[in-house]
Amino acid sequence: MRLFLASLTAVLLGQAAVAQVDLRADDAARLDRFTQTAGAALLQALASGATDDVAALTTALGGAPQVALDQDLAGDWQCRTMKLGGMTNLVVYTQFKCRFTLQSDGVAFEKLTGSQRTKGVITYRDGRAVYVGMGFVADATPPDYGDLPATFVSDGRIQTNVALFERVSPTRARLMFPAPAVESDFDILELTR
């Protein structure tokens, strides 16, 4: 138990307790362009989104980031996706269920309900809390990110997901996905409990 707690503490403090999976080149590039992608999508969403959707987006993005990963993160959360740019200017979906689970190599995250899901791990990379995982439709079984063949191409049923994770209070957080593989230019998964 002490070894597990020491490993978890190291992960939560941003020290690698175990080796992280390497990012695929296209996913690393998406994270590198985070600010530009977010800016363009936000301008489009704010200019053309419905009033209620813009209000929800503003709430989701409100609040300064705090310590992202700690033991209080674990458990069930409500989550809703906001899709910015691309096929539509701004779409805000209803609430779904998500879960954070503390583990020795980071914090596992999974969107448990809805037709579009994601599961992966949040770890610190270059001073940022970064989510690396797989997006998939509810009836698909995705491989782990680290097990993808070099030739893997996102196909709309299964795709790679990378996002920045920010926690703004004990009851509010957000995952922000730059240039997702399908439908939009930028996604935000707002998390509340």
Description:
The chain has 193 residues and is of the alpha+beta class. The chain has one domain. It contains 4 helices and 9 strands. The chain has an 8-stranded antiparallel barrel, surrounded by 4 helices. A hairpin with a 2-residue loop joins strand 3 (96-103) and strand 4 (106-111). The longest helix has 15 residues, at 34-48. Residues 1-17 have low confidence and may be disordered.
Portion of residues in beta strands equals 35-45%
For the biggest β-sheet, the strand order reads 1-3-4-5-6-7-8-9
Which outline best applies?
globular
Number of domains: 1
Mean pLDDT: 89
Query: What is the number of beta strands?
Result: 9
Which residue ranges are poorly predicted, with pLDDT under 50 across at least 5 consecutive positions?
Answer: 1-17
Judged by helices, strands and strand pairing, the structural class is alpha+beta
Radius of gyration: 16 Å
Distance between the termini: 28 Å
How do the strands and helices of this protein lay out in sequence?
Layout: H1 2-12, H2 25-32, H3 34-48, H4 51-61, E1 75-84, E2 90-92, E3 96-103, E4 106-111, E5 116-125, E6 128-137, E7 158-169, E8 172-178, E9 186-192
Antiparallel strand pairs: 1-2, 1-3, 1-9, 3-4, 4-5, 5-6, 6-7, 7-8, 8-9
Keywords:
4 helices; 9 strands; globular; alpha+beta; 193 residues; eight-stranded antiparallel β-barrel
Describe this structure in a few short sentences.
With 193 residues, the chain is α+β, with helices and mostly antiparallel strands.
